[in-house]
Amino acid sequence: MLFCFPHLQDSCPRTLRLSVIRVAMYAFIVTTILMTACGNLLVIISISYFRQLHSPTNFIIFSLAMVDCSLGCFIMPFSMVRSVEGCWYLGKHFCKIHSSLDMMLCSTSVMHLCLVSVDRYWAISQPLQYKTKITTFKILLFVVIIWMFSFIFSFGVVFSEITSVGLEMPLNPCVGSCALIANKQWAIINALVLFFIPGTVMVSVYMRIFHIANKHVRVISNRMATVNCHELKNQTSEQRERKAAKTLALVVIVFILCWMPFFITIVVDPFLNFLTPVNIFDALIWFAYFNSVCNPVIYAFFYPNFRKAFKIIMAKMFGLKNASHVLQS
Prior knowledge:
The protein is mainly alpha-helical. It has one domain (19-220, 230-318): Rhodopsin 7-helix transmembrane proteins (Rhopdopsin 7-helix transmembrane proteins, Up-down Bundle). The chain has helices at 19-49, 56-85, 91-125, 127-133, 136-160, 184-226, 231-268, 278-301, 304-317. The termini are far apart. 29% of the residues are buried. Mean pLDDT is 84; it is low at 324-329.
C-alpha cells in the first residue's frame, strides 16, 4: 500500500491505479481544463474588445465567463491532482481555501445562469420596456450581489465548519485528505441554496419563455396570413423562433444533467452514513465542472456576433489577413 505522506503515521493511502489509466485521466482532465479556460477567455476578450457586444445581457455572460475561467484556472488543476492521485498535498489551510473557492465559483456560475434566464424572460415578454427597465447599472448591481452572496456563504460555511456539527467522523480523518463533509441538515441547505432553488427558477422561467415563444410563432403566422405574405417568410420566422426555443432547451438540459447527479448525491450521502465511494464523488464533481465547458458554447457560440468576434480574435492570433473585419451592429 502506498501513502500520500510515507513519513507520517496518520497519512492517507494513495489511490492505486495503473500508469496507463493515470495518464489517460490526466490527458482527459487537462483537455477539459484547457477547453474551460480558453473557451471562456474567448468570451471575455470578445466582450471587452468589441463595443458591439456591450449590452446588459452580455455583461452577465462576461461575468459568467470570468467565473468559469477562474474555475478552470484556479480550482480544476488542484482538483485534478486530488482526483488522480487520491491525495491532497497542499495542507489543511489551503484545502479550506480551495473548498471555499470551489463552492463559491460553482454557486456563482449557477446563479449567473439563473440571472441569464430572468434577463431573457424580460427581453422576450416585454421587449418594448426591456431597454428602459433592464439597464447596465441594474445588471452590474445584480452581478455584484451574486458574487458577494456566494463569497460570504461559501467561505462562511467552510471556515466555520458548521457542516460537521454533530458528526462523529472528522472532516479530514487523515493527512492528505481534502473533503467537505456535511451533516444531514447542511447537505439539504447547501443543495437547496446552490442548486435546487436556482434550478427551479431557471426551469420555471424557461417554461414561461417557451410559452411566450410559441405564442409569438402563432401571432406571426396569423399576421403573415392576413397580409398575404409569402409562405417562405412565414417559415423563416417560425424557424427562428424554434431555433431560439431549442437553444433555451439545451441550456436547461445541460445544466440539469451536469449538476443534478452531484447535488442528489450530496443530499443522499449523509442519510446512507457516507457510504458513497470517493471515486464516485470525483466523477460527479468533474461532470458538474463540465457545465463550465458548455457555457461558452451555449451562450456565445450560438450567437452570430460572438462567432464573428471569435473568428477575428483567432485570425489576429494566427496573423491572418481577415483579422481586419469588424462586427456589424
